[in-house]
Amino acid sequence: MDESAGDPLQLHRAEPAHPVLLEQLHWLGVLYWTLNADKDENDPELEKIRKERNYSWMDVITICKDKLPNYEEKMKMFYEEHLYLDDEIRYILDGSGYFDVRDKEDRWIQIFMEKGDMITLPARIYHRFTLDEKNYVKAMQLLVGDPAWTAYSCPAAHFEARGQY
């Protein structure tokens, strides 16, 4: 993606474009699936993934002005570059948005996600999230174990876990 400070709700494609293949994301530890979002949590494929990867905790968040308290503040927080010490798993049930992740050379990769897309961002990867111009997403959040939503702003190189990444 380009490094401009433009509207985060817009696509930020570098010129010339440098498409990133799923294999490249996988090399960074980013996993991706396409599922049938109309089945929600009743999808056998989702259940299979949850069992294989031990995703035992689940909830659903709707991000839009009418549904998310302190919407503006939360959107700024989501878009601030950060990391978690645990994997971050998001399954888009409706709407769309962008996850941006840093590659090993510290360049941004913008990942457009829409209904049916599920992604796992590995612990320790710098990332951020924003909606697109539709300003709406409904996403399932999955975790191994209990939720521990402590985001660590960048730089976070002092964490041993970041050094392992």
TrEMBL record:
HAMAP family: Salvage_MtnD_euk. Belongs to the acireductone dioxygenase (ARD) family. Coiled coil: none annotated. GO terms for molecular function: acireductone dioxygenase [iron(II)-requiring] activity; metal ion binding. Keywords: Amino-acid biosynthesis, Cell membrane, Cytoplasm, Dioxygenase, Iron, Membrane, Metal-binding, Methionine biosynthesis, Nickel, Nucleus, Oxidoreductase. The keyword Cytoplasm applies. This is Probable inactive acireductone dioxygenase. GO terms for biological process: L-methionine salvage from methylthioadenosine. Its main location: membrane. GO terms for cellular component: cytoplasm; nucleus; plasma membrane. It comes from the Eukaryota. It holds the Pfam family ARD. The gene is LOC118892949. Monomer. Interacts with MMP14. Probable inactive acireductone dioxygenase. Its cofactor is Fe(2+); Ni(2+). Gene3D superfamilies: Jelly Rolls. It catalyses: 1,2-dihydroxy-5-(methylsulfanyl)pent-1-en-3-one + O2 = 4-methylsulfanyl-2-oxobutanoate + formate + 2 H(+). It is found in: Cell membrane; Cytoplasm; Nucleus. It is a peripheral membrane protein.
